[in-house]
Amino acid sequence: TDNFQAPDYYNIDELLTDEHKIVRDAAREWVKREVSPIIEDAAQKAEFPKSIISGLAEIGAFGPYIPEEYGGAGLDQISYGLIMQEIERGDSGVRSTASVQSSLVMFPIYKYGTEEQRKKYLPKLASGEFMGCFGLTEPDHGSNPSGMTTNFKDKGDHYLLNGAKMWISNAPFADVAVVWAKDENGRIHGLIVERGMEGFSTPETHNKWSLRASATGELIFDNVKVPKENLMPNKSGLGAPLGCLDSARYGIAWGAIGAAMDCYDTALRYAKERVQFDKPIAGTQLQQKKLAEMITEITKAQLMAWRLGVLKNEGKATSAQISMAKRNNVEMAIKIAREARQVLGGMGITGEYSIMRHMMNLESVITYEGTHDIHLLITGMDITGIPAFQ
Ligand code: TGC
Ligand code: FAD
């Protein structure tokens, strides 16, 4: 059974509205009921549990902040963050699916797409009838997507798309792919590619030790004819995909707190029950140091995410502020997972507890959506005015 108790050391609940708490609690209950009982098995089998798609839609995880007229939940940014926190408390791979669907597929269609594209895709993505993926990364261009080589040519009544994307979450089962590719002038645009288009395939990436309950794959475009109406016309250039990443990275800053909370709660509970040398290990200074530092770091991360959410609601959060929170909170979570695993001793390496799964998942989270290093360089550029990427 899932007895998770969310830590709230600084009464952060007092900063939340009733709506935030209702949305958060509904997501929390759903994770306990629908995700916790099946997720370990899914991760062990390396299968994305498709049975949870309709539940994700019901808790508002697909397009939390997309307006209701397009099927979204019409919530604010803090509710969005809280939903991500609760889902990642269950598993980072499940949160990945929600992040991609909401911020990397629905967000660009809503922001950069035509009214026809919004009406055609958003309601079905919100309900989970359509699943989406986002293709930016390529085999030779990960941290530096501006070097991408995937390209399309204007053939009069359609575009001809060629190239390949790698490491794409949800790719193996996605119905639609938001794909970033260069036109004949080298300008980046977003295209909506649909499963079934001739020359489009999505081979699955196997043997991952991380995000095993999330399906990852490639997107291969071999002379794919893309109808002209599938180009999203309202923004081009690298800023278009990076704008989507801002929204997803913000969600991850909250999501990582969920994974950390679960590790802390599990370690605290275990330490109070586990007796060695005739007393609970929670009564030893070494284990208290671990647990006390965990709750301190979680509390700092919660405050950072909450403040960022307020700024985001006001339309004032900068990309660099989002980078700082993504970087800090994911590192916080991965460090807590590693410490919490030790608190459990040998039991910590088993699937009886969620910690090792979180720890392995977070190895992807610290790398995707901009690596730990890239986010540091974004902060460095922001405070000095000098880019140090090259
Ligand atoms: P740079 O010259 O700095 O910028 C190019 C244009 O973009 C604008 N811009 C942004 N716009 C919106 N949001 C942001 N965060 C932005 N950052 C930059 C910028 O103003 C400029 O606009 P304009 O109008 O002047 O052209 O670009 P650069 O080539 O030097 O790159 C900068 C860098 C390294 C920060 C960027 O390339 C980067 O962030 N790299 C990391 C790549 C990355 O995060 N990939 C993630 C792939 S998706 C993914 O991982 C999904 S995992 C999903 C899951 O399962 O949850
Ligand atoms: P590289 O860019 O080759 O980096 C390798 C190392 O070099 C890193 O440590 C990096 O920090 C460092 N490095 C790079 N540049 C510099 C520099 N200038 N200075 C110092 N150090 C540097 N992408 C998508 O488009 N869509 C998805 O849905 C998606 N899902 C993913 C799911 C998983 C499970 C994973 C693992 C990745 C996913 N990605 C996705 C790709 C992810 O965004 C990239 O892996 C990430 O951006 C890093 O690119 P890379 O792996 O090519 O590493």
Verbal overview:
This protein is of the alpha+beta class. It is 50% helix and 14% strand. The protein contains 10 helices and 10 strands. It has helices at residues 18-45, 53-58, 77-90, 92-112, 115-127, 239-273, 285-313, 319-343, 355-365, 372-384; strands at residues 132-135, 151-154, 158-169, 176-182, 188-194, 200-201, 216-227, 231-232, 275-276, 279-280. The strands form 3 sheets. A 4-stranded mixed β-sheet has the order 1-4-5-8, with helices on one face. Helix 8 runs antiparallel to helix 10. The chain is globular and about 80 Å long. Residues 133-224 form the Acyl-CoA oxidase/dehydrogenase middle domain. Its cofactor is FAD.
- Strand tally: 10
Shape: globular
Uncertain runs are none
Mind describing the biggest β-sheet?
A: 4 strands, mixed
Topology record:
Blueprint: H1 18-45, H2 53-58, H3 77-90, H4 92-112, H5 115-127, E1 132-135, E2 151-154, E3 158-169, E4 176-182, E5 188-194, E6 200-201, E7 216-227, E8 231-232, H6 239-273, E9 275-276, E10 279-280, H7 285-313, H8 319-343, H9 355-365, H10 372-384
Parallel strand pairs: 1-4
Antiparallel strand pairs: 2-3, 3-7, 4-5, 5-8, 6-7, 9-10
The protein binds 3-thiaglutaryl-CoA and flavin-adenine dinucleotide.
Flavin-adenine dinucleotide (FAD) binds at residues 100, 133-137, 142-143, 167-169, 211, 216, 364, 367-369, 371, 373-374, 389.
What would the keywords be for this entry?
about 400 residues; alpha+beta; four-stranded mixed beta sheet; four-stranded antiparallel beta sheet; 10 helices; about 15% strand; globular; binds 3-thiaglutaryl-CoA; binds flavin-adenine dinucleotide; Glutaryl-CoA_DH_mitochondrial; flavin adenine dinucleotide binding; flavoprotein
